[in-house]
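Need the bound structure for pyridoxal-5'-phosphate, inputs here:
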Amino acid sequence: MRLEQQFFFVSCSLQDIIRTHLLRHPSLHNLHDTAAIQLNDTHPAVAIAEMMRLLMDEHEMDWNTAWRVTQKTFSYTNHTLLPEALEKWSVGLFEYLLPRHLEIIYEINRRFLEDVKRWYPGDDNLISRLSLIDESGEKYVRMANLACVGSHAVNGVAALHTELLKQDTLRDFYKLWPGKFINKTNGVTPRRWILMCNPKLAELYNSKIGEGWLKDLSQLKQLEKYVDDPDFCQQWREVKLHNKRQLAQYIWEHNGIEVDPHSMFDIQVKRIHEYKRQHLNVLHIISLYNRIKQNPDQHIVPCTFIFGGKAAPGYFMAKLIIKLTNSVADIINHDPDVRGRLKVVFLNNFNVSLGQRIYPAADLSEQVSTAGKEASGTGNMKFAMNGAMTIGTLDGANIEIREEAGAENFFLFGLTAQEVADTKAKGYNPWDYYSSNPSLKAVIDRIADGYFSHGDKELFKPLLDSLMYHDQYMLFADYQAYVDCQKQVAKTYSDQDKWTRMSILNALRMAKFSSDRTIREYCNEIWNVRSVPIEMEEYSQENAGLNLGK
Ligand SMILES: *Cc1c(COP(=O)(O)O)cnc(C)c1O
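Answer from helper R.:
Posting the output first, comments after.
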């Protein structure tokens, strides 16, 4: 059904593009002058074969011309470095559902591999890696390979991601066509992710510099002169407190948990995945809890930990991470020793609408993926634009966010992508970290003892076994660095003047992450289109607010 859907949507779109083109042009030889088709991941990659079918079988074009038009029309954005996430369809399924497309894919492959053989004679391993067909066992069509061969440009979505594509995931294609590879760092729209979701912040900006920033986010830099202005800093804190109160109200209504808007809101919202390491966040929370249990009177910065995100239906470990988070929340929120200084909340049904309430209310943005695994991240950008500080690894767009904000305005920890690869090559042994770090051992032992699961020692065993014996994502390797970095965060948060200053500079320096910049680059460097002025109704905050459901 999935392949059928992909084909159906792709075929409808291509036929519509061709129909529209033929209204104004006599032939399809110049289709690439009127249409640019961006493959958003490999899900629509079957469009390469469908375009060839339409041009040849329906519009009587010869193979060479059709192939030239197809390549000039298509480009491909890769969205993940995880090899298990690269789409493959079994040849048997393709033959049953789309026999003509399989025939075309075989012919694309035959001609492509003939070229490769001429360029690199005798390199059979290279041929088998580049082939559109995986023939190592049961035969599969490799959709990423099809997308690379059929496109004139291939891009990653952050600088590190594009580099890793070139060095690793797509290195053989990079060797053939280095000029095809290009970076397009993702962005988010300031209309939704500042104006709509944070009207008080938008109003503060408008009162100082007018509305120009909405269409040109770099104008926010003009506000840096207010970073030492006590009135501006006070207004900045009031905006944040207002947003935190609103979210606290939502949490009370939906979770029945009372949270203090004056506590630090430490938030991780994103799909649940082991590489994103929500469980590293949970281990840190348990370490704080252990400190309180050892000494209930010790000073601790009051903190509200908020989680949200969905797990894929068949992803057992992701669901177990949700279960662990809720179980830890249940114990900590009800332990009188904690005296309300820590609260843990898991919000159901995280989606864009809920995101619009959450991002503006954050003090701290959790971006703690294993370095080299997060292609870009865009949540990191939404948080930063709304004045949250980031605690994060050198991964995805975090690297560029830190460059823009300044290293002194970013809480960095953990192994680099290179160090992750080196540690893996040497043989990562989680046991060494567990047995030599009493804090880590105490955290793991508390989960293993059934403390958070009513004495059930089996419930979280699959998760703990994974962490202790075969963890690809190296939580234990980053554990101490993360806990130490969180101590630095708490210390900084205690100095509200310093924190406010960092928060302001962060938000004002995020212009690079406006989707306007991203889309302009796609226009200029991939699609070859020029911008034209259009008539539009004035965009008002009243109109924007209508869709918020607040
Ligand atoms: C922005 C956004 C994401 C992406 O979050 P990351 O932290 O970049 O993974 C996911 N889901 C929703 C609802 C979002 O708004």
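Comments: The longest helix spans residues 230-255. The domain at 190-527 is CATH 3.40.50.2000 (Rossmann fold).
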